[in-house]
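Researcher: Please translate sequence to structure tokens.
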Amino acid sequence: MSPWGPLRQRDEVAVEDMDRPDCDPKRLEKTYVRFPVVNRLLSGWHGTYRRRIKPLLEREGKASLLDIGCGSGDVARSLARWASSDGYSLTVTAIDPDARAFSFASRARPMRGVEYRQAHSSDLVAENLTFDVVISNHILHHLDPPQLAGVLHDSEVLSRSLVLHNDLRRSNASYVLFMAGFWPLGVGSCICGDGLVSIKRSYTPSELAAVVPTQWRVERNGPWHHLLTFRPGASQDNAPGMLRGEDYA
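Model: Translation complete:
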């Protein structure tokens, strides 16, 4: 039997509990509360900030950033805090179309330079807004093909310098280790169950590369994630550190 077993193919049908409109409010609240722990341990945003965003701040002194599908807003707040600690100004607009996520993020302690909006990326395109950097964390696997195409199109229009979409990388190892290591966070929340569904719904790098426009690149981001990157006006073919999807095969 293949070592991939049930994860050989991406699950395009499973739905995460927190995405259901009838998700229990108390479980959802605990899920949002625990997101910062998961992201600190797994998502690698501090390293991504140092390698990708801080160099832009060093050149320009300040920058604007859009976080699409911000959820609890913890990544947006972390990025603003790291930039401030480094002596730079990073203004962050964090958007999520889900009223429940917007409500939770808006109740967080106010942070200078961070604004939350209940909105789709297409709403900001319609407003002719642009940002130096556009990011997302763990949203690509939630999207059906038309939604994915829409978010990528909007990202290209909204970004002046850099797009970074961070998402899970599907593998047997990630599934087993997440189940073993994060079950305590699942008690009373959606973290464990939805995390496993997220892994089953996520792409391998070659799968992701096959469904995005050619000017986008899939890059390694640690053992459990990949970054889908785009630089407006840049030649992606020869950019240093860029890996094509087939490099993972």
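Researcher: Any highlights?
Model: The first strand starts at residue 62 and ends at 68.
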